[in-house]
Amino acid sequence: MPTYEFGSGVMWATPMIDLAGNNVSNPTPIPFGAMQDVSVDIAYSVKELYGLYQFPLAVARGTAKLTGKAKIARFQARLFNQVFGETLSANEIKTVSLLAANVTANNYNTGQGANFYLDLGIQYANGTPMARNSAAGAAGQYVVAANGLYTFHANDANVAIIVSYAYNAANGPGNSWTINNQLLGLSPFFKLVLNQAFQGKQVSLIFNRCVSTKLTFATKLEDFHIPEFDFSMMADDNSTVGSISVGEQ
């Protein structure tokens, strides 16, 4: 019976070597969630030898390149950290966007305290932006403290405002992935497994050593956000790139 496959399949990444060049002990495989599609390209350079005639006398295969691309709809900080090898923190940075609020006397308190992270601006209720300053010396100006307390000029007491800010959700379920400025040449390596199953037959692609080359975030109006992840494969220490297994008879 011939083998046919349907759908995007399932893919896992397992860390093998960290940024310092050390083997990862007890590596944990992480699946790519809500995967939309995957492509794997095997490309060779060739050299042709010509004589007097139009077609070559000989063709020799030169260097080869293995690259892949996957689109995944599920956001996973652990996966991004696993394949790019940066710093994962057990806290999520959340944003409060365009929150309608009111100044009480001449203050507005976000209530975040030490978890306050970043001011993202204040507007009047009609959308007119206010200006941040070192002191609220005039109407339309505000000061924000490190604990998320906003202070306004006396002429803006009790006015309606629109607030935007970011804070650390230290006790939440989310994670943050910090991108560091690494030395040139440093990169982690991971093993990649892609499996498809249809009508009792499977096709499996296994690549022993991969490196991430690109991560694209592209949003669209009235559509889901689907990050795109690019990677390249190479031979491992045993000069093996990987394997392709097909369930055919």
Provide an overview of this structure.
With 249 residues, the chain is mainly β. The chain has 2 domains: 10-48 and 59-90 and 175-246, Pnp Oxidase, Chain A (Roll), CATH 2.30.110; 93-169, no CATH class. It is 3% helix and 51% strand. The chain has 1 helix and 17 strands. The protein has one helix at 77-84; strands spanning 10-17, 30-31, 35-49, 58-72, 87-89, 92-102, 107-109, 116-124, 131-132, 141-144, 149-152, 160-169, 176-178, 189-198, 201-216, 228-234, 242-246. The strands form 4 sheets. Strands 1, 2, 3, 4, 14, 15, 16 and 17 form an 8-stranded antiparallel β-sheet that branches. A hairpin with a 2-residue loop joins strand 14 and strand 15 (201-216).
List the helices and strands and how they pair.
Elements: E1 10-17, E2 30-31, E3 35-49, E4 58-72, H1 77-84, E5 87-89, E6 92-102, E7 107-109, E8 116-124, E9 131-132, E10 141-144, E11 149-152, E12 160-169, E13 176-178, E14 189-198, E15 201-216, E16 228-234, E17 242-246
